[in-house]
Amino acid sequence: xxxxxxxxxxxxxxxxxxxxxxxxxxxxxxxxxxxxxxxxxxxxxxxxxxxxxxxxxxxxxxxxxxxxxxxxxxxxxxxxxxxxxxxxxxxxxxxxxxxxxxxxxxxxxxxxxxxxxxxxxxxxxxxxxxxxxxxxxxxxxxxxxxxxxxxxxxxxxxxxxxxxxxxxxxxxxxxxxxxxxxxxxxxxxxxxxxxxxxxxxxxxxxxxxxxxxxxxxxxxxxxxxxxxxxxxxxxxxxxxxxxxxxxxxxxxxxxxxxxxxxxxxxxxxxxxxxxxxxxxxxxxxxxxxxxxxxxxxxxxxxxxxxxxxxxxxxxxxxxxxx
Length: 322
What we know:
single chain, 5-stranded mixed beta sheet, 17% helix, alpha+beta, 33% strand, 12-stranded mixed beta sheet, 8 helices, 21 strands, Fumarylacetoacetate hydrolase, domain 2
């Protein structure tokens, strides 16, 4: 099952994606407790899933809209996005690393304030960063609560999967000493407006099957920059759920992002420790993202998350009241 969120009369609504059409389950059922939002649906459990399956099997015409006629938003806006950095060996091979890179998950957080949906712009603002980089990542959507979850049963807590572009301000993230030591400022470099495009849909876990066997790709202006598989993760989805559940009670609607493979623009930035490594078959980056670029993040069985890079329009100066 694929879930989307779409805009209708200025209001965001949960949708069930059926090929090239979207079913509005709230219009069909009149049940906001189940279909009022993606989070409500996730919390509804088996009852909601069964009702949604019945609608998909016999789509109500009055509540069916052509996909081309709706504007998609982020399918969910999680309050907490738990993030694991440096989780692909090939990405670690192309960049400067910290002492813990590849030895334990690098833990940082993004929030709902970072989230934008499909086709929404990623803001480029030189006052903040001149080195905006993009990273395609498989994202786990939690369905069942739990704390100290064992890896062996961790996938039982997964509702589904989506895509997150872990947009990064490299000139704020990477710090280097004159002696050559590298460390990351993950707050400033990772959490900011439009720093987490998310979508285009959530695919339920039963349709994904093994999350460690999915192709992951990114294209910038049509050039293939990243192409790998989730099989190349250092820590699996199950192990990351176990890891993050030590700190937090994982709750329905929380999202965990799982790292990115090689092919980032960072690899070409020798000033910040890029090693100029190019994976076979990829178009190497020669610069960071700039206004006018189109970024496409793709994960097998989920789809393509597409976002433009756009110049941030500075707000007008405040005018003091007389």
